[in-house]
Amino acid sequence: MISVERPRCGVENGQFMVSSRIHVKNDRSYDIYYRSSQGPVSSGDETFFAATLIPAMQEGGPLHLDGSVSKRLFRGAARIQEIYRVWDPGLHGVRTDVRTGGGLGNGAARGVGCFFSGGVDSFYTFLKHREEITHLVFVHGFDLKLADTALRAEAACAIRGISREFGKQLIEVDTNLRDFSERFAHWGTHYHGSALASVALLLAPQLGKIYIPASNTYLHLHPRGSHPLVDPRWSTEGMEIDHDGCEATRFGKIERIIGSEIVLKTLRVCWENLGGTYNCGRCEKCVRTMIPLSMLGVLNRCTTFRSRFSIAKLRKLDMSEGTVKYVKEDLEAARRLGIKSVLTRCLALWLGFYYARRGGLALWRAMKQVLKWGLRSLHLWRPEVKSHVPTH
User: Fold this and answer.
1) Contact (Cβ atoms closer than 8 angstroms) between residue 285 and residue 349
2) CA-to-CA distance for 17 and 283, rounded, in angstroms?
3) What residues does each domain of the chain span?
4) By the 8 A CB rule, do 91 and 84 touch?
5) What is the pTM of this model?
């Protein structure tokens, strides 16, 4: 059982705050807060409903909230439970003990937001809907831990510059929600969409619609915490939540956004942030992003990566189906654009290496020696990959 106390609202140091105490099975309690740089914010009932539904399904007891949520959200939550229980039979269907009301009503008179981290997905969705979007929303405490104060300050400074450059309002929200959720739900597999939805519902008095940028294409959808089948079901009568960007590959998104100089000056993609860096340039995700930037001839202008790119960094790529998806997209784009380079040949070799690994031990060992020799010789011959600018 999870029980949510009536949320408390107030203003502290110029920030609009909503908080509540969450009780789990009557023997554990957690104080969760949200602080927004701009107001007004909601009463918190719907925010905490979205924040606690998945943990309640994990715990297996009813969810009790001393408040009311919109009828549309209540119906959407029932469908969300159905979807997640098919994806993960280990989750429980739970009774939601909460009153229902009418919600805020039509949100057309309010602003349009976009969750924005400064990464490829959020830049793509923002630039795609640039004329419609009025607000960028940056959340402290989700991908960047609250304890990483220096890195959060650097990221926030960059995003403030982006909002000024494009003439958009910026809402910064900080929350300790993830400190709670990590105990009950896997962030990527089950939870991050509902976490974003909880922030969207917090901001409903200011925004009538918000975009959640997609990570995967329609071709590669799989059960995730944020998904086009689930995210819109967190919507209310007055807040429309839209999962956006599934039509574009990651290479296609990068191809679309690099025309903006501020993207190249502020792009932030790193998950590991080794040594507290903005983009370490060494982790798997940094390398995955540097590959298309190099192929498109703009990596040398993208100043946010701490280290330079070399062929040897292909060894950082995970031998997984997820990474294969990106490598295939890169090679398909190279064929479309007529890009032929050392990098594309090595990507093709890497892909052959992956399939050899799946094909059997003997073939795996043979390809491993070929790839090791190939990367070593290419690294000695050309330690830095020169960017290729397509001629057409």
Assistant:
1) no
2) 36
3) 2-101, 111-173+182-244, 267-381
4) yes
5) 0.90
